[in-house]
Write a structure and sequence with these properties.
This protein has 185 residues and is α/β, with parallel strands linked by helices. The chain has helices spanning 11-22, 46-49, 73-97, 119-138, 160-172; strands at residues 2-6, 26-31, 36-37, 55-58, 103-107, 144-148, 180-181. The protein starts with a strand and ends with a strand.
Length: 185
């Protein structure tokens, strides 16, 4: 498959790109700093820049931990605009450009236990999970959408290659649609 990985230079994106390539997929890496640049808040030009895709994977979404009583409205709205609405826009654009049976995999995030500063992130992530669950049922032409919801990723947490396996499964498994994968327990 031809797969674009948005956020390909980050911890998760690097692991997802490698895992998909190991499985024989042609991967186009995209990020704010790669040869093909994209800000997830504005995904409109992606499909004219990278045509003929079979799958779209977004690992670019992140948000800062901001205490509910200390953050500015702008800090909260940035997470909403990029992580939630940017990925919603990406899914909507992908519907117009992917072939029948194409796949869209987005990124939410969940912690096993409440973490100080994560209230707005929880709102954003749960909103994205709910959106994907419902939007998947409305997708035309056999298109599929899933969301990965990893917790902390890195040396002292879930290894990036373990999280990458969930992305590969979402891309490759034609029975997965409207699912949240990788949620920590």
């Amino acid at each position: 498959m031809n797969v674009v990985v948005i956020g390909a230079t980050g911890t998760i994106g690097t692991a997802v790109t490698a895992a998909l390539r190991e499985r024989g997929h042609h991967v186009v890496p995209v990020s704010r700093t790669s040869e093909i640049q994209l800000d997830i808040a504005h995904p409109d030009r992606l499909f004219s820049t990278v045509p003929n895709l079979d799958a779209v994977v977004c690992c670019a979404a992140s948000g800062a931990l901001v205490p509910i009583d200390a953050g500015t409205d702008e800090e909260f709205l940035t997470g909403l605009e990029t992580k939630l609405l940017g990925q919603v826009r990406l899914l909507r654009r992908a519907v117009e450009h992917l072939p029948d049976g194409g796949s869209i995999t987005l990124t939410a995030g969940t912690f096993a236990a409440p973490t100080p500063g994560s209230a707005f992130g929880a709102l954003t992530n749960q909103g994205l999970e709910a959106f994907v669950r419902v939007a998947a049922a409305e997708l035309p032409r056999g298109l599929r959408a899933n969301v990965i919801s990893p917790g902390w990723v890195g040396d002292d947490a879930t290894p990036a290659d373990v999280v990458a396996a969930a992305y590969v499964r979402a891309v490759e498994d034609p029975t997965l649609n409207g699912q949240t994968l990788g949620r920590p327990t």
